[in-house]
Input
Amino acid sequence: VIENSHVGNECCLSGSTFINSTLEDGVFVKPYCYVEKTTIRKNCIIGSNMQITNRTIRANSKLSKEE
Output
């Protein structure tokens, strides 16, 4: 689901929800994520099952839940 959001070039979004957010170029988001009111800068990788709200993620970041 992508609602009121901007998605840059060469992004890969899989089975996640994006609301009022901006994803810059080259962002990879694994399944089951919820992203709201967030800016994800260039070339980030977001792991599965992440919930991100009201944040700015720096370029080239890799986020995942600790297992």
Summary: Residues 6 and 22 are 5 Å apart (CA to CA). The chain is about 0% helix and 40% strand.
